[in-house]
Design a protein that fits this description.
Beta-lactamase; transferase; glycosyltransferase; single chain; alpha+beta; eight-stranded mixed beta sheet; 1027 residues; transmembrane; carboxypeptidase; Lysozyme-like_dom_sf
């Protein structure tokens, strides 16, 4: 019960326990306030950082500064080449590991290469792109032996050199379309890789597309990340979010490579983008990169003219129209980059609409005025007609440079198109100054007045009215310690064919040099086999009556007071052979006669030295016959000796052994001949080795194409002989050579080709993927069949002629092996004595190589055109290679080489090249020792019912000039008009004489014009670092 209180008295206060302040509430409020303050501060900081990138600048600049590399001597284990990226592929960076492997396997040493430091290695192994100053234009540079430029390919062809060269409207248009705040000068440390507002919109857009796949979401790429993408990302595209992140991080690190201030780099980004942006590819041109090339390829617009128009104030009349057209083209290409293969091909109407829309937006934003906008909108885009007006890439390297580029393409296993676009520097052996001087001189020979002044007009020389059709090819090689270096290689044609290396021509009497070399080699071999025997022992050596060479060697050694090899070689050159044309020669399956160039030689009985000096034909035909017969009989138990005795019990055993074992030997030889050849190349090689004739060609065609109809045979014969046979003759050839008409040996006999070669060609055409082992297994019956037929003919005469034809083919296979060892370039010889006069063909470059062997005392040195190769200069991938010096391959006895040099010297002193005698005197008055061999070729096809038709006429001189230099000079006419030319090898001899003043300064032992020494003899350069 409560006590009574007065009415006016207040009620007593009751304590309120629940309202007392508690500590956790105070703390919560404090945290909330702190978080709010922190959020505001953090937001302000992030907003400030997004706008200025100051913290990123500080951190990333420090990080980028640690990413270093250095160029040091020797191979590097601390280097990583890119695996993908369109620009890395085009510049060759992705192929450098493969290039290195191929080059080192082919005689080059890796002399310098970049080493990554640890930080850069870690950066790259995280999958990021290395930061360095990338090249916007690059390509193959070719230098001569003194470091002077010979050839340069720059891709893209057109571009801005400096940011200041870019018209303001071009830069503003690009930034408006792609990256509007990139050049904001108020933000000096801005990270150009990320536009946060744009990135946020793109992120929201991608979220929207998860709901609506058709939603047109904006892109978030800046110019910096776009450049990373099309340069380095696989396929030049962003495949996923991870790839986008890699682009952004790599671009951010690259942006701060030079420090925290990025405005200069951001200007370079604009410049680089304009110079490199991918704009699809065009027929006849290939890929298109950069605004400059894009304008020229797609619109036929001159880059300099477009820039001049857009840099000028808006004009009147035609100039305003041109300015509007130029702006429209530029904006169209900026838009086309988004989908270049679509916009620049099937999407041109859509491109035009989008271009119009942006032109209007430019005007609304104040970038351009209404007048220029209207001028740009007035006319539609007019694309170049790439069929009627193809955008060819200009490239005009000289023949020497073309040969070097072709050689390099083979070394690297890459196409010439790709080769020119590599970031590479090629150091060649060519002497650019001399190459240019010789090329200019040869080019003047089409001028009648100049030709007359050089002594080239006259009988068996040139006629003023026909100078223009004559072409010239010249090669000069210098023998050095490490190889034979080509100093000059040029010709006067404007065709890609290099007649020096890419032709097969009858070069006439130059073949006599090869025959003489083989002859003296055989003499040296006989000396090595017989010289140790005393006269009684020599007389007991059995020699077949047909082997006159061995008989002469025995007689010489049995009676000569000086039995040394040099003396025997000199005696061999003094042997006499009749020059009479009265004898018929059974060769190539038939009887042939030969003539001399000068009828006055017919009654002579010259020595071989004299025959070489005067280039008399018949002594060399008879010498070749002697070599063929010696080759037939030189092996004990040879086929030729065995077949002389019909009753020899070893016949059957021999045939079985020969057909299996020896047949395999020939099959392997033929396999090597056609190895790595296409079907067309296999056919051509076989057919080019045949003497043109309808019967032979038809026999081969019907074997290779047994199901082909008659008209196919007619077309084939027309291609090979110049015209098709008459209908009756065609029917006869078709029926006579039916597949069932001949067995393999008879068909080989008719075609004058080894039956096993014919079989292998057919097998390779039917089974292009077959291996040698499969060919050997498949040919077991044919190997027996090929040689069994020889003994079925009852008529001894017919049997002997067939046997001899086959033996001659086999002998020429052995002679070819010898020639190939001395650089003969083709896979076969025509099995005929006419080979001594050039019927098997040759190449000027191959003759020069033979001369190099002779000059170098029998050592075969490699012919070199490339000394150094440097890839990716001033990049993290830089790698430099140099040719390794090599020892010569002894392919000829030194005594043989010296004997040949002496014989060739006689040709100059008193033979067909005598006009050259005394023409090359050095500055001190001394005369260079000179020698050489002349040859005239009249390359004809025989057309039924009329005389031979000359396809080309050639006159060649293969020479040596002093102890170190040698080469060839060829004059030639190609085409039917060649039949009217009568010049001989005196023409190239006179030209070489006239070129003496050009050449002599370069022949001095240590002249001022000398090339630099081989690179591996020099000190290695000092290391170069990235920064």
């Amino acid at each position: 019960m409560t006590p009574d209180l007065p009415p006016s008295a207040p009620e007593p206060a009751v304590p309120s326990v629940g309202r007392r302040p508690r500590p956790w509430r105070v703390l919560g409020v404090a945290i909330c306030v702190a978080l709010l303050v922190a959020s505001v501060a953090g937001g302000l900081l992030l907003w400030h950082e997004a706008g200025t990138s100051r913290l990123q600048a500080r951190a990333l600049a420090r990080y980028a500064a640690r990413l270093d590399y250095a160029l040091l001597a020797g191979p590097s284990a601390a280097i990583r080449f890119p695996a993908h990226g369109p620009f890395d592929q085009r510049l060759g960076y992705t192929e450098l590991a493969r290039f290195s492997e191929r080059l080192q396997a082919r005689g080059f040493a890796l002399v310098e290469q970049v080493r990554f430091d640890d930080a850069l290695l870690a950066h790259v192994e995280r999958g990021l792109f290395p930061p360095y100053a990338e090249k916007t234009r690059a390509g193959l540079d070719v230098f001569d032996c003194r470091g002077e430029p010979l050839y340069g390919f720059r891709y893209p062809w057109r571009g801005y050199e400096r940011f200041e060269d870019v018209p303001a409207i071009v830069a503003q248009a690009l930034l408006f379309i792609e990256n509007r705040d990139l050049l904001d000068e108020s933000r000096p440390t801005l990270n150009p890789a990320v536009d946060w507002a744009r990135f946020a919109r793109a992120a929201l857009g991608q979220l929207g597309r998860m709901v609506d796949a058709d939603l047109d979401a904006p892109g978030g790429s800046t110019l910096a990340t776009q450049i990373e993408k099309y340069r380095h990302s696989p396929g030049g595209i962003t495949q996923d979010a991870r790839e986008k992140l890699r682009q952004m991080v790599s671009a951010s690190v690259r942006a701060y490579r030079e420090g925290e201030q990025t405005l200069p780099l951001r200007r370079r980004l604009v410049l680089d983008y304009l110079n490199t942006v991918p704009l699809s590819a065009a027929p006849g041109h290939g890929e298109v990169n950069g605004l400059g090339d894009g304008l020229w390829v797609w619109f036929g617009a001159d880059f300099a003219r477009v820039n001049a128009l857009l840099a000028a104030p808006v004009g009147e009349g035609e100039e305003r129209i041109a300015q509007g057209r130029a702006l429209r083209q530029v904006v169209a290409l900026m838009i086309a980059h988004r989908r270049p293969s679509w916009y620049l091909a099937g999407g041109r109407e859509e491109l035009a609409r989008t271009t119009d829309a942006y032109l209007r937006l430019f005007a609304e934003a104040g970038l351009i005025g209404a007048v220029l906008r209207d001028a740009a909108l007035a006319r539609p885009l007019a694309f170049r007609d790439l069929v009627a007006d193809p955008a060819w890439v200009p490239a005009t390297p000289g023949k020497g440079t073309t040969a070097v580029r072709t050689r390099l393409a083979g070394l690297l296993d890459t196409a010439l198109y790709s080769l020119d676009r590599l970031d590479a520097e090629l150091g060649t052996t060519l002497h650019g100054g001399l190459q240019q001087a010789v090329g200019d001189y040869l080019g003047q020979l089409s001028d009648p007045a100049f030709a007359r002044s050089q002594g080239l007009i006259g009988e068996r020389m040139l006629q003023p009215a026909t100078l223009g059709a004559v072409r010239y090819s010249f090669t000069l090689v210098e023998r050095t310690a490490g190889g034979n270096r080509v100093r000059v290689q040029t010709d006067t044609t404007d065709q890609p064919l290099d007649i020096n290396e890419g032709s097969k021509l009858e070069l006439g009497s130059t073949a006599k040099l090869r025959v003489l070399a083989t002859y003296l080699e055989l003499v040296a071999e006989l000396h090595g086999r017989l010289a140790a025997l005393d006269p009684p022992a020599l007389r007991r050596v059995e020699v077949d009556a047909q082997d006159r060479l061995t008989r002469w060697a025995i007689d010489h050694l049995a009676s000569a007071p000086d039995r040394s090899l040099p003396a025997m070689l000199e005696a061999a050159l003094e042997r006499r052979f009749s020059a009479s044309p009265g004898e018929g020669f059974f060769t190539g399956g038939g009887r042939h006669t030969f003539g001399n160039f000068n009828a006055s030689d017919n009654a002579r009985n010259p020595t071989l030295r004299e025959a070489l000096q005067a280039s008399i034909n018949l002594p060399f035909v008879r010498l070749m016959r002697e070599l063929v017969r010696h080759t037939m009989y030189q092996v004990p138990g040879s086929t030729a000796r065995l077949l002389e005795d019909n009753e020899d019990p070893r016949r059957v055993d021999y045939l079985v052994r020969f057909a299996d074992r020896e047949g395999q030997l020939f099959l392997r030889r033929f396999w090597r001949k056609y190895q790595d050849s296409t079907a067309e190349e296999i056919r051509s090689t076989l057919l080019d080795g045949l003497r043109p004739g309808a019967d032979r060609l038809a026999a081969v065609f019907r074997y290779l194409e047994p199901e082909a109809p008659p008209h196919a045979l007619a077309d084939f014969l027309a291609r090979r002989l110049g015209e098709p046979p008459a209908a009756a003759r065609l029917a006869q050839l078709y029926a006579r050579n039916a597949p069932e008409a001949f067995d393999l040996p008879d068909r080989g006999y008719v075609a004058r080709v080894h039956p096993l070669e014919l079989w292998l060609v057919a097998f390779r055409l039917q089974h292009p993927e077959a291996t040698l082992a499969e060919a050997v297994a498949a040919s077991a019956d044919e190997r027996q069949q090929v040689y069994r037929w020889l003994f079925r003919t009852r008529a001894k005469g017919a049997q002997d002629s067939r046997i001899f034809t086959l033996l001659e083919v086999e002998a020429f296979l052995e002679i070819h092996r010898r020639w190939a060892r001395l650089g003969y370039p083709f896979g076969h010889l025509v099995p005929s004595l006419a080979t001594a006069l050039g019927s098997s063909g040759d190449r000027p470059a191959a003759l020069a190589e033979l001369m190099g062997i002779i000059v170098n005392d029998g050592q075969r040195l490699p012919v070199q055109r490339i000394d150094t190769l440097r890839f990716a200069r001033a990049t993290p991938y830089e790698s430099a290679f140099a040719i390794r010096p090599v020892e010569g391959d002894p392919v000829m006895a030194p005594e043989v080489a010296r004997a040949l040099r002496g014989a060739l010297s006689d040709v100059v002193e008193g033979g067909t090249a005598r006009r050259l005698a005394g023409a090359f005197k050095l500055a001190d008055g001394s005369e260079l020792a000179l020698g050489g061999k002349t040859g005239t070729g009249d390359n004809r096809i025989v057309v039924r019912g009329r005389a031979g038709l000359a396809l080309n006429r050639t006159a060649t001189f293969v020479f040596y000039l002093g102890p170190r230099h040698f080469g060839t000079l060829t004059a030639y006419v190609i085409g039917p008009e060649a039949a009217s030319y009568r010049f001989t090898s005196g023409l190239p001899v006179q030209i070489l004489k006239s070129m003496g003043p050009l050449l002599i300064p370069h022949l001095e032992p240590a002249g001022a014009h000398a090339c630099l020494p081989p690179p591996l003899s020099e000190a290695a350069p000092q290391p170069v670092t990235a920064g």
